[in-house]
Design brief:
There is one protein chain. This protein is α+β, with helices and mostly antiparallel strands. Helices cover 67% and strands 9% of the residues. It is built from 20 helices and nine strands. Strands 5-6-7-9-8 form a five-stranded mixed beta sheet, covered by helices on one side. Strands 2-1-4-3 form a four-stranded antiparallel beta sheet. Strand 5, helix 19 and strand 6 form a beta-alpha-beta unit. The N and C termini lie far apart (96 Å). The N terminus is likely disordered.
């Protein structure tokens, strides 16, 4: 009967649990190891850091296998965890078990594991780097180089296993029964003196080839594999930095810490790459590591140079206390400021001015204040973004009110770009174009906030330019409308009313001449003149109505609209109603009153034309007169098309509410 699924799932934790047990045993041995003795001299340093590496591999094994128990890398991490844990346990046991007068059982096996079989440990890390994530070597020359590296490291480790100690171990007085050459093959000392350095070089070469192979595989990868390799690439960069910096120190603690990072970090990176490659923005982490690595190298070089100069200047001429005082004085006065300035210079060189957001925004504000044209303002924004982030190319593209697009660029265009939207009050007004690749183009959360502040200036400049364009268009429209109105009135007066009144004067004069001699003809002429005068009065009323409806003066806004609704309701089953909220009858500006009347009339007439009912609502607030149409079953957009131009002429806003009502807000200042 097959085991339950839950039992099979937890069975994958056997290897991780063993690695934790090995770590615990190693810690116990280290705690109970004497402070001195032959065992402590044979195995320099505690074993728990190496067992801790094994425990990290074990935890990574558990995470991978619980995610997917068929993942071969998970099982590989588990066995490597046992290897490292056993090596750490062997080191701690040698330190604990080799006493001045005796050796506990199993010491020779522990020595063989520590000093000989442990030579395969670097190969485990290199092999993982060479085959992750496909389980195969790279194609082509790099695959061949990887196989050569593995072969060279294997032969080097095998040489360590079989080569006799020949004086390579510490000169320690050992108790009876301890054999440093268990399993060794007799070899001449001159031969081992030649082969062992070669083995060390081969091991170092193999690790370097494995690290380089990660870079090559990353550059060749795409999609999910590239996301996974990006994590391992980050681990390799950190490994290179740690190895480089630790080479300047001879402290055991520094060496153990470096070994821990170099061995454990790839396993952690592979685990994240397998289980959740999008855990954090690893590209930003990778770019930051690049910069930190470069800064670290520069500062270490400066530190070494300063130490060398102080050694030459001070030498043996001063006592220890005097040397300490001189070093402290020089550090406080010269070195620390120089180091801080160098750190700032390198970051500015490689990352731009993003560390000084206030200065960036202040300079941009000054540039925008000095620029008059919209294109100049957008160029200033592009330049500010480029300088802030050290980017070689930035382009700002914004849409104008007339449909055209303004493009302002700074720097040299690049092949691959990415676009970010520029928004103003939730509306996209343009695009910001940046390079898609490069360390400087990668933005952290803090960088994105600074970029948002800069882009907001572009949006404001764009909005200002659009408002200026719209204002100019409205001014032109008002001038055109005014001149059209004047031409129409001129036409009405000169082409219609003028000749008509001239004819009436002639008829009145004719009637005066006929009164005595032909009174009947005079009466007929006067009758015709009276009829023509009524037509003239109607024409005058029409002209006056076009300028300002008389009903507004006679009935007021509300009364005039109710009269209009009553006239439109004649013969219709669907009724129109006018409702008022607030005081809409007194103190309204003339322009707002006329615009409201014409807009409301258009809404009522459209309802009547569509044979739809509707409730016209006038709502007066402190700052606006709101004309609304509710309760209609017609499309609200039909009404907006009719009144939008009239509303925008006086700065009004049109829209449709969430309930489907038409709403037009006309800004005003009440008089009186």
């Amino acid at each position: 009967m097959p085991a339950p699924r839950t039992e099979r799932r937890w069975a994958v934790l056997v290897l991780p649990v063993v690695s934790v047990a090995l770590f615990a045993a190693t810690v116990w041995l280290d705690v109970h190891t004497p402070a001195e003795g032959p065992g402590v001299e044979l195995a320099e340093g505690s074993g728990w850091p190496y067992a801790a590496i094994g425990m990290v591999f074990g935890v990574c094994c558990a995470v991978v296998l619980l995610h997917d128990r068929r993942q071969a890398f998970g099982w590989g991490l588990g066995w490597i965890a046992l290897f490292w844990g056993t090596d750490g346990l062997a080191q701690s046991y040698v330190r604990f078990a080799v006493r001045a007068d005796e050796a506990l059982p199993g010491v020779n096996l522990a020595l063989w594991m520590l000093n000989r079989f442990g030579a395969f440990l670097p190969l485990t890390v290199a092999a993982l780097l060479l085959i992750f994530p496909t389980g195969r070597f790279l194609e082509g020359r790099w695959g061949a180089a990887g196989r050569v590296a593995v072969g060279g490291m294997s032969l080097s480790a095998l040489l360590v296993v079989v080569a006799p100690a020949n004086g390579r171990m510490p000169d320690v007085q050992l108790p009876p029964g301890v054999d440093l050459d268990v399993g060794a093959v007799p070899m001449p000392t001159p031969l081992t003196d030649i082969l062992m350095p070669v083995a060390v070089v081969a091991t170092i070469f193999g690790v370097l080839v494995a690290m380089a192979s990660v870079v090559v595989r990353y550059r060749r990868s795409t999609g999910l594999e590239r996301d996974r390799m990006r994590w391992l690439l980050w681990a390799v960069v950190v490994m290179a930095v740690v190895l480089g910096l630790s080479s300047f120190s001879e402290l055991t603690a520094v060496r153990d810490a470096a070994i821990f990072v170099v061995a454990a970090l790839p396993a952690v990176a592979m685990t994240i790459g397998i289980v959740r490659p999008t855990l954090v923005p690893v590209q930003q982490l990778l770019d930051g590591t690049y910069v930190f690595a470069l800064l670290s190298v520069v500062l270490v070089v400066v530190d070494l140079a300063v130490v060398a100069v102080l050694h030459e200047l001070v030498g043996d001429r001063l006592g220890q206390r005097q040397v300490v005082l001189v070093v402290l004085l020089l550090s406080a006065v010269l070195y620390n400021p120089l180091r801080a300035a160098l750190w700032s210079f390198v970051r500015r060189l490689f990352l731009g001015q993003r560390d000084d957001p206030y200065d960036v925004v202040a300079r941009l504000a000054s540039s925008l204040e000095a620029a008059d044209e919209e294109a100049e303002q957008l160029t200033a924004v592009a330049q500010a973004v480029a300088l802030a982030f050290g980017i070689g190319f930035v382009s700002v593209e914004v849409d104008r009110a007339d449909g055209d697009r303004i493009v302002a660029s700074y720097g040299t265009p690049v092949a691959e770009t990415r676009s970010l939207p520029i928004t103003y009050r939730g509306e996209q007004v343009g695009m910001l174009v940046l390079p898609a690749r490069g360390v400087r183009a990668r933005l952290s959360g803090r960088d994105e906030r600074l970029l948002s502040d800069l882009v907001r200036q572009a949006a404001t400049a764009s909005r200002t330019g659009r408002l200026a364009d719209e204002l100019q268009q409205h001014r032109q429209a008002l001038v055109v409308a005014r001149e059209e109105e004047r031409r129409r009135i001129h036409h009405d007066l000169t082409e219609d009313l003028g000749p008509t009144l001239g004819g009436l004067v002639h008829q009145v004069e004719s009637a005066r001449l006929l009164v005595k001699e032909r009174p009947e003809a005079a009466k007929e002429t006067i009758a015709r003149t009276s009829e023509r005068l009524r037509d003239v009065v109607a024409d005058v009323r029409r002209v006056v109505h076009d300028l300002r409806p008389p009903a507004l003066d006679d009935l007021g806004l509300v009364g005039a609209l109710r009269q209009q609704a009553a006239l439109l309701d004649a013969g219709r089953t669907a009724r129109l109603h006018v409702d008022v909220r607030g005081d809409a009858g007194a103190g309204l500006p003339a322009g707002v009153e006329v615009a409201a009347f014409r807009i409301a009339s258009e809404l009522l007439e459209r309802c009547a034309a569509l044979d739809s009912r509707g409730d016209l609502v006038l709502d007066v607030t402190e700052s606006a007169l709101v004309v609304g149409l509710v309760g209609t079953d017609a499309d609200p957009e039909v009404f907006l098309d009719e009144v939008r131009d009239r509303a925008t002429e006086i700065g009004g806003r049109c829209g449709v509410t969430e309930h489907g009502a038409v709403r037009i807000a006309l800004p005003m200042r009440r008089s009186g």
